[in-house]
């Protein structure tokens, strides 16, 4: 029989029970307290509208000058962004992408052949397997362990390295654990000699971190989605560093030249957008910190344990194993009209954990917590 679609897309397209129940709730017109909100443009933040819209009002956007690595002025803006955070790079080390997801796709194309493996952390954001599958690359997970705080399991990580391992992904800070990779641990990762893909989209919501010269080929990824609260602007970047980064960038430029995905208006606007959105970053930091404080107080003395968090937009609740995670989230949505995410969405190894977004508007967050604790 004729095969119509690629095996890369052999995913289960059926909605899961949680999404089905949520659709029923919406269809019935009920009010659901969404404690999973991760879209900053829907989180009640105050945006500097005049500055953002003014940055996009530029006649240069009417001209098309293709530049595979991105406009020089935009890459210089990325350099200034890092200089303000005590990291020195050159514009030549920067390549613009439409998103961090596209950055992963470019890097998988660069580093891996079909059937090769990339190492990704567990728990973490549940996107890597889909991105890797689209590039015909296999994901092998390595665990993060929790003993009052999160840490890398280096013994398990070393056992995960195979002959066809082509890259090591770190999410720094991690989503959803909120843990960071220390300088000492980063240097230990470098000693493996495998290219490191460092996803740093939540780095502006972490404490100060020291930066050291890269001893392994490293690709840092970031973009406007998280650091400016502007996911709709569709601009991210890769910063290449360490041994061999010039040759890597030459090849990345070939990939980027094939797609030329980043729109000219947002590239032109970037030098103004980054400083203009400093107030948005401050609001997000205040929101996530204050909501975490609310969560800690609400769960004090209850059967729910709040796991240690260093930074980031999310928090994790360990809940009694009187029911499965799926039963927990379906019960909370069905009976309490509160939407949370189960730990298995993020590949937690054991149960029972619930993940909540600290970006949620405070009144919704407080009311949702009250219903959960009840």
Protein traits:
374 residues, alpha/beta, Aspartate Aminotransferase, domain 1, Aspartate Aminotransferase, domain 2, four-stranded antiparallel beta sheet, globular
Topology:
Layout: H1 17-27, E1 33-34, H2 49-56, H3 72-83, E2 94-97, H4 100-111, E3 117-122, H5 128-134, E4 138-146, E5 150-152, H6 154-160, E6 165-171, H7 183-190, E7 196-199, E8 218-223, H8 224-227, E9 236-241, H9 245-259, H10 264-276, H11 278-299, E10 305-306, E11 314-318, H12 325-336, E12 338-339, E13 341-342, E14 353-357, H13 362-373
Parallel strand pairs: 1-12, 3-4, 3-6, 6-7, 7-8
Antiparallel strand pairs: 2-9, 4-5, 8-9, 10-11, 11-14, 13-14
Q: Could you say which overall geometry the principal axes of the C-alpha atoms support? A: globular
Q: What is the averaged pLDDT score?
A: 95
CATH class of the largest domain: Alpha Beta
- Domain count: the total is 2
Q: Roughly how much helix do the residues carry, as a percent range?
A: 25-40%
Secondary-structure-derived class: alpha/beta
Helical segment count: 13
How would you write the strand order of the largest sheet?
2-9-8-7-6-3-4-5
Instruction: Briefly note the CATH topology name of the largest domain.
Output: Aspartate Aminotransferase, domain 2
Strand content: 15-25%
What's the end-to-end separation, in Å?
56 Å
Strand elements, count: 14
Radius of gyration over alpha carbons? 21 Å
CATH superfamily of the largest domain: Type I PLP-dependent aspartate aminotransferase-like (Major domain)
Second-tier CATH architecture of the largest domain? 3-Layer(aba) Sandwich
């Amino acid at each position: 029989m004729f095969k119509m679609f690629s095996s890369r897309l052999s995913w289960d397209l059926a909605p899961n029970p949680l999404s089905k129940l949520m659709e029923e709730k919406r269809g019935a017109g009920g009010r659901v307290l969404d404690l999973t909100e991760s879209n900053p443009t829907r989180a009640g933040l105050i945006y500097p509208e005049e500055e953002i819209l003014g940055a996009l009002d530029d006649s240069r956007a009417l001209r098309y000058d293709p530049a595979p690595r991105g406009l020089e002025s935009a890459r210089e803006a990325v350099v200034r962004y890092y200089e303000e955070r005590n990291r020195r790079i050159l514009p030549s080390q920067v390549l613009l992408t439409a998103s961090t997801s596209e950055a992963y796709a470019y890097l998988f194309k660069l580093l891996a052949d079909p059937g090769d493996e990339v190492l990704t952390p567990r728990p973490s954001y549940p996107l890597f397997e889909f991105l890797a599958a689209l590039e015909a690359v296999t994901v092998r997970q390595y665990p993060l362990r929790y003993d009052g705080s999160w840490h890398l399991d280096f013994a398990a990580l070393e056992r995960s390295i195979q002959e066809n391992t082509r890259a090591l992904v770190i999410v720094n800070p991690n989503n959803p654990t909120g843990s960071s990779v220390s300088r000492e641990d980063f240097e230990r990762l470098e000693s493996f000699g495998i290219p490191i893909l460092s996803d740093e989209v939540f780095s502006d919501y972490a404490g100060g971190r020291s930066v050291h010269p890269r001893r392994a080929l490293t690709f840092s990824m970031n973009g406007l989605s998280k650091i400016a609260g502007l996911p709709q602007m569709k601009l991210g970047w890769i910063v290449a560093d360490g041994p061999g980064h010039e040759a890597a960038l030459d090849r990345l430029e070939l990939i980027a030249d094939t797609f030329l995905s980043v729109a000219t208006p947002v590239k032109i606007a970037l030098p103004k957008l980054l400083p203009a959105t400093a107030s948005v970053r401050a609001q997000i930091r205040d929101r996530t910190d204050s909501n975490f404080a609310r969560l800690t107080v609400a769960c004090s003395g209850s059967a729910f344990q709040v796991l240690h968090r260093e930074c980031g937009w999310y928090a994790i609740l360990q809940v009694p194993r009187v029911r499965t995670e799926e039963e927990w989230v379906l019960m909370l949505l069905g009976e309490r009209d509160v939407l949370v995410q189960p730990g298995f969405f993020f590949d937690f190894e054991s149960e029972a954990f619930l993940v909540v977004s600290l970006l949620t508007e405070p009144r919704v967050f407080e009311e949702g917590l009250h219903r959960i604790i009840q």
